[in-house]
Amino acid sequence: MGLLVAVMIASACLGAVHIRLCDFFAIVAYRTGVNPQAHYQPQQEAVLFALRFPRVLLGVLVGAGLGISGASLQGLFRNPLADSGLIGISSGASLFAVMMIVLEATIFKQLQQATGYYALSLAAFAGACITTFAVYRISIQQGRSDVSVLLLGGIAINALAGALIGLMTYMATDEQLRNITFWNLGSLGGATWKSVTALSPFIAIPVVALPFLSKSLNAFALGEAQARHMGVNTGLVKRLVIVLATMAVGSSVAISGIIGFVGLIIPHIIRMAFGADHRLLIPASAILGAAVLTLADLVSRTIVAPAELPLGVITALLGAPVFIYIIMSRKRRTQL
Amino acid sequence: MISLNQVSYKAGKKTLLADINLEVQKGEMLAVIGANGAGKSTLMKLLSGDQQAHTGEVRLDDEHIKTYSMAALALRRAVLSQHNTLSVSFLVEEIVMMGRYPHFNGQPSSHDVDIVKSVMNETGVKHLAGRDYSTLSGGEQQRVQLARVIAQIYDIDGAYLFLDEPTNGLDLLYQQQILNTARHLADKGFGVVAILHDINFASRYADRVLILKEGRILALGTPNEVITAYSIQEAFGVQMALFDAYGCKYPFVIPKGIV
Hints:
Chain B: Keywords: ATP-binding, Nucleotide-binding, Translocase, Transport. Chain A has 15 helices and two strands.
């Protein structure tokens, strides 16, 4: 928690316009009414409030959403490799966003007229919901959804979405291709107060609700039948986790594009440090996810300033070596 | 009491169980034996409320088993399944505490903590409490799982315990320890149903033995009534020699050969 606050403040202060820590507190004190006098330059305040704060908050929201969804999906699927990509959330969002960019079809045009700037986000969110629902439908047998069928369904739908994305890419013009690439690499560059407000309920609800499912997810670790024997309403837990995770990831992807590795790795780090109990894992993954994503965004916009590296590149560059380290150290531990 | 009245169960068109009439009393240990595919596991799923019978009815303490919610069932019976693999690793004491999950929201009470301690003592896994489950041997893992399911119903009078091949893959000592624990629970007033492969263990530990053949009850009664050369040959297709070993009041069988 302290780490998150530190990263948030650092991220708010650093960038093309540097804001010293004392100025930061002066601005905050003035705006919150603690200090009636303003001891800073107005330009700094503008940067802080119009640019940095929304961006930092967006990073916190997206990171928390990705982290908490990753932790609960890994618990639900009893698979430490599970993440939101596995059940089609990301690929569905990608497909719809790419279709929107390339096809420029009438329905999308109408959507664009109606919702303006948010059309792409809405399309992506709808895509995430549609594919996840399709995967879930495939998995239902005799009124019960089977986790292994759910994963197979996810693979099938992902392949289908991948093929259609490939087709769109083939049809795309050069400029559209560039748009697609940037969208697929993820960025918090579109942060505004408006997007932060739009996203916050979609993240807040899962972040509040998912910790209530942690005991059930612990029971899931023993097996689905075992969880049922222990009185867990497995069908309900499954539906809730999927809906909440789709909500968090679908809306994050819709605003910031695809940001890989956060949902996969954050829960692993927490598990290595504090054990596998979901009562700790789920909230801790939200906090660490938020801190890591904010930090990664700070790196992405300062390392080649004034230009920006795509955020997805940074998370993958940081995430992949960490993941390899986790695999290696687990291998060593089981050998002993 | 759990009672099955004219129960049958089908998977697709195949009948897995037919015309089953059975009562399981509190305080008794019932062993279920039979060849592979005879319907032992299906019977256990019906008894534990995991699956619903297609015809006939299953009653748990005079109520139709369908009327129990998952959470209510968890307070009446515990089930030790055959395969217990963990997706992520937990400590042994955390796993045994999971048995108490139906009893608390949020944090366990001191009562739950006490029960976990006594159960771990009784099942001989106390010294493993702080160990990582994935580093245990097969026999130790099975005993931890047994401790978990016992913890679930430990303080509930007249609850039921279902054990699906609890001694599978264990050595002689662990087999005895697990069946001893089960026997002990039955003596304390729990209803225990165990699927067993070893006829001699069934004979030694159970009050009653149920032999299933192709989804029907072949024989049901005390070990002395039920375990005969004829019934075993009928159920398994193996010729058996029946001994009345010295100092052993239970029937004792060894195979002579395939029919």
